[in-house]
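Inverse folding, one chain.
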């Protein structure tokens, strides 16, 4: 996504009211080597919408907010001033962004169609969720799920003891 497109989208999209952002207590904040490309990819593949973005003179993103069904993810480019860095390409999964979505099959098919790297296909979990895991274009691991049934705590505890 070009700097001009990001600038245009920033002002074309309604501002996110602070009261909305203040409700969520933890915000994933991700750093990308190519944040403009990440914004485009996350919107196209995972269905996010750009809420706002601020770029520096060379087109890198100083700060952006993406939204999905009332939830927010923040991101930026690698910037020395912020001392933040993108993943280094190692396959070791040390963290992931986890999201609940309304239509997991539709979300999964969209990710597949758009070429997301699926690292764990759709699975029904004994704790009542249907989920999948995917890598984004720079290697961040994302998990998406939808509750498919309510499971009593005792049943989950029993299953975990033999897992």
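Residues assigned per position:
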């Amino acid at each position: 996504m070009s700097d001009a497109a990001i600038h245009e989208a920033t002002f074309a999209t309604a501002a996110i009211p602070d009261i909305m952002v203040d409700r969520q207590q933890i915000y994933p904040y991700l750093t990308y080597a190519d944040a403009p490309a990440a914004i485009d990819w996350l919107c196209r593949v995972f269905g996010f919408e750009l809420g706002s973005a601020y770029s520096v003179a060379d087109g890198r993103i100083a700060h952006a907010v993406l939204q999905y069904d009332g939830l927010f993810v923040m991101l930026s480019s690698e910037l020395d001033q912020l001392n933040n860095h993108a993943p280094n390409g190692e396959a070791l999964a040390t963290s992931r962004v986890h999201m609940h979505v309304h239509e997991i099959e539709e979300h999964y098919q969209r990710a597949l169609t758009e070429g997301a790297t699926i690292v764990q296909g759709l699975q029904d979990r004994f704790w009542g969720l249907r989920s999948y895991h995917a890598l984004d274009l720079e290697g961040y691991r994302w998990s998406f799920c939808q509750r498919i049934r309510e499971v009593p705590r005792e049943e989950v505890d029993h299953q975990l003891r033999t897992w």
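The two ends are 44 Å apart (CA to CA). The helical segments are 3-12, 18-23, 35-46, 104-113, 153-161.
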